[in-house]
Design brief:
Immunoglobulin-like, five-stranded mixed beta sheet, 22 strands, binds 2-acetamido-2-deoxy-beta-D-glucopyranose, transmembrane, transmembrane helix
Length: about 300
Amino acid sequence: MDRKSSAWVWLLFPLVGAGVAETTDPWTHLESIAGRLVFYQMEGNATRVRNTGELASRVPTKTTFERFDPQKNFSTAKFTYTWDLGDGQVIRGREPVVRYRYSASGNYTLRLKVGANVTTYSPAIADVYSTEVQVLDAIKSIELKGPSDYQVSKNTSLAFHVDGSPPMWVCWRFLTDCVADEAASCTLTALYGNTLRLNHTFTAAGVHCVDISVHNDVSRMQTSFSLYVRNNNTHLIFILSCAAVLLATFSFIAVIACRPRHRHGSQVATCSNAVFLKNQDAEGQSAIVFNFSDVAKGEKEPLLTQHGTQ
Ligand SMILES: *[C@@H]1O[C@H](CO)[C@@H](O)[C@H](O)[C@H]1NC(C)=O
Ligand SMILES: *[C@@H]1O[C@H](CO)[C@@H](O)[C@H](O)[C@H]1NC(C)=O
Ligand SMILES: *[C@@H]1O[C@H](CO)[C@@H](O)[C@H](O)[C@H]1NC(C)=O
Ligand SMILES: *[C@@H]1O[C@H](CO)[C@@H](O)[C@H](O)[C@H]1NC(C)=O
Ligand SMILES: *[C@@H]1O[C@H](CO)[C@@H](O)[C@H](O)[C@H]1NC(C)=O
Ligand SMILES: *[C@@H]1O[C@H](CO)[C@@H](O)[C@H](O)[C@H]1NC(C)=O
């Protein structure tokens, strides 16, 4: 017995009983099960309807099949629902609802096969609903990756790692002394990766704040970082102290080199016109040759030769 004729059997009873002759084919309406898929996601205590085809990953998700049957043609039918989530999960049940979660971001095709047995004798009716879902990772963190040192009047490029699925929309602003100015609006930037680079030149020393608000289609996150910006003077002090250390080192070397030494009873009293030569001998040892030209005696021979391992 084919599907149409058996549908007749079922439909004929009420029609015959009412004594009404139907001229059109009434059973054709029962060939499809009308309805739509609705997605819900639970975030904490809140439940959100997600009907844009975008879902957040790792979030409890509920999908329902809302049947459209105003004339209650299927009121006595028995249904079976087969949910193929597209990521390998297949769930079967008799209720028009499925609970699951996508564990990873990506694009999936969710297929629902709805089967209905209107009567014990009629053949099963089946329909397939298919929808594309884009699963995105919610924004979980915003981390400052560098630099760690900030100076006044220096072009600084700050890098932030934003953990979430792109594309994301970022609105950022810098606040001097962390004072929120009523008029301070944020600058909107689209982020197509996970690294946000902000270029800024700090105009004053002290504590500055950078406010960042990021959202993608499934989540939103706002955070603020405080940065300590120091004056360039500190840099100058550092250079000066380095210079002082270098000066002290060279003075020490000069003092060592010019120190009066006894050599065959005579003294090398002067250290003017000293020439430092560095020789590499055969054993790999380096020899520092202090070559003095004694102006007074007009000597051309080296007066002192010092060997040492470096
Ligand atoms: C339900 O059946 C009636 C006839 O009994 C038909 O006119 C109507 O279109 C059907 N509705 C649906 C949604 O199939
Ligand atoms: C969410 O539920 C927790 C208890 O589970 C409660 O403490 C909190 O106030 C609730 N938050 C909202 C926004 O209702
Ligand atoms: C519908 O009928 C078929 C046999 O025709 C059976 O395999 C299936 O389990 C039935 N489904 C329900 C929901 O009763
Ligand atoms: C998913 O599909 C959207 C368009 O619907 C596309 O922009 C995106 O790149 C796709 N994502 C992946 C991971 O393929
Ligand atoms: C700051 O440096 C970046 C490169 O690091 C450059 O793209 C940007 O134009 C510079 N801005 C200013 C104001 O010099
Ligand atoms: C900062 O500069 C880098 C180049 O160094 C550039 O790629 C980035 O887009 C800039 N950021 C902003 C917000 O202008």
